[in-house]
Amino acid sequence: MNITRKKRTRLYRDIVAQIRQLIQEGSLSPGDQLLPERQLAEKLGVSRSALREALTALDSMGYIDITPGGGAYIKKMGMESMVEPLAAIMLKERENVFELLEARKILEVEIVKLAAQRASKSDLYQIREAAAEMHNEVINNRDAHEPDVNFHLALARASQNSILYNIMTMLAGLMKEAYGPSRNELLKDPEQNQIWCEQNFKIYEAVKNNNPDLASKLIREHLQMAEDKLKVIFGDDDSD
User: Fold this and answer.
1) How many Cα neighbours within 13 Å face the side chain of 135?
2) Tens-digit pLDDT profile for residues 12-50
């Protein structure tokens, strides 16, 4: 376990970041026990109180399991436990929400291109059903979050690329955890919801008609509109 000693003034989140990196790199594996608190604090060059705070955070994020009197052990990481710590960081750093949206734009623009070229009849049915379900929820003033997510996941599935689909599944979890309350604000405007529903159907038609250029243009506009609305909600709108 190669942990770098840094300045004693380091914040607990920096300790969290370094241990997370070691886990993600495989330097720390599921079942590994961390050094005892005193030794680990010395190795990191931090106070024991800062280390305790970091370990508590890692425990709540699902990275480690702390046993009273038995030390801290690395836990097995699944998709859900990867989402939670990333979302926790995003909730603290508002700009990260917009980085998430930027990542979505980059990813989904390419996903719909593949979907327009590869979607099966079953894929098209799932995309159309998700769009129709969202429209139905909107016109009945019900929560449209789930069908909206399902629409984007159906597009990812239609790309016929399991890696892209898994990444989109993780992003869907991040969207829910990191800016769920703000996203709910986005879905409160009936007129805006109707516009998004119409955009979904247009994206579906572009995919069905094997038009990757149009599909990518439409989803870029769709996500940009969501970003612009979020900026207004966050008070980051610079249009004035």
Assistant:
1) 13
2) 778 888 887 787 667 888 888 998 888 988 888 888 888
- DSSP letter at 72 equals E
Per DSSP, the three-state class of 66 is: strand
Please spell the DSSP secondary structure of 131-186, one letter per residue: HHHHHHHHHTT---HHHHHHHHHHHHHHTT-HHHHHHHHHHHHHHHHHHHHHHHHH
Q: Which residues contact 23 (CB under 8 A, 6 or more apart)?
A: 63, 74, 77
What confidence score (pLDDT) does residue 9 get? 39
Q: Which of 98, 123, 121 is nearest to 230 (CA)?
A: 98
* Separation CA 17–CA 10 (nearest Å): 11
| Residue reference for tokens 């247009």 | 202
Predicted local distance difference test score (pLDDT) of residue 8: 40
How far, in Å, CA of 207 to CA of 199, rounded? 12
Residue written as tokens 């836990």? 75
Give the three-state DSSP class for 23.
helix
75: amino acid identity, one letter: K
In this prediction the pTM is 0.62
Which H/E stretch holds residue 73?
strand 71-74
Pairing, β 71-74 against β 64-67: antiparallel
With vertex at residue 169, the alpha carbon angle to CA 139 and CA 90, rounded to the nearest 5 degrees, is 90
pLDDT of residue 109: 96
